[in-house]
Design brief:
The structure is a single chain. This protein has 5 helices and 5 strands. It is α+β, with helices and mostly antiparallel strands. The chain has a single domain, classed as Beta-Lactamase (2-Layer Sandwich), CATH 3.30.450.40.
Length: 164
């Protein structure tokens, strides 16, 4: 089959989304968070770091890249954009400086699994709390290492969350 680049990306995104456990469709339950290990990792990392305001984890499958876990439920299922793709391509974080409208550092970094394979990207909003840019970037690097130490594989992230 010969797919266009856009169709191949959409097909890959659909593949990643179909790997996620599907929520119930009745009533308001369709708005609940995915019960995946990826979502559990996002929530644990957020709970450990008070300056961390939000986290978004995206995974690559084939040529597609899709958000699979996030503090903002509406972000789950979104295709990656330039701020996720750039760190995966270059290995360098994408950093958006705080503004009056958005007073946090928006830092996106490439994510690797236990064996070191590139599996996606993690975006995090970190409040500066009076710290320098370098101090915030250092914290983002530490959080990334902590997150990567929780991941043995992409498949693990997409599996149901273990009972606590």
């Amino acid at each position: 089959m010969n797919l266009t680049k856009g169709a191949a990306t959409a097909a890959g995104a659909l593949l990643v989304l179909t790997m996620l456990p599907q929520p119930a469709r009745a009533g308001r339950e369709h708005n609940r968070r995915p019960n995946t290990y990826a979502q559990q990792v996002v929530e644990e990392i957020l709970a450990r770091h008070p300056d961390l305001k939000s986290v978004e984890l995206a995974l690559v499958s084939g040529k597609a890249c899709v958000t699979v876990a996030a503090t903002a439920l509406e972000d789950v299922g979104e295709a990656c954009d330039a701020d996720e793709k750039q760190p995966m391509r270059t290995g360098k974080p994408h950093v958006e400086e705080p503004t009056r409208k958005d007073p946090v550092y928006d830092i996106t970094q490439a994510v690797h699994d236990g064996p070191g394979a590139l599996i996606g990207a993690v975006g995090m909003d970190i409040a500066p709390a009076g710290r320098s840019r370098e101090a915030v970037l250092s914290q983002a690097g530490e959080i990334l290492r902590e997150l990567e130490n929780m991941i043995s594989s992409k498949e693990q992230l997409l599996s149901p969350a273990p009972a606590k």
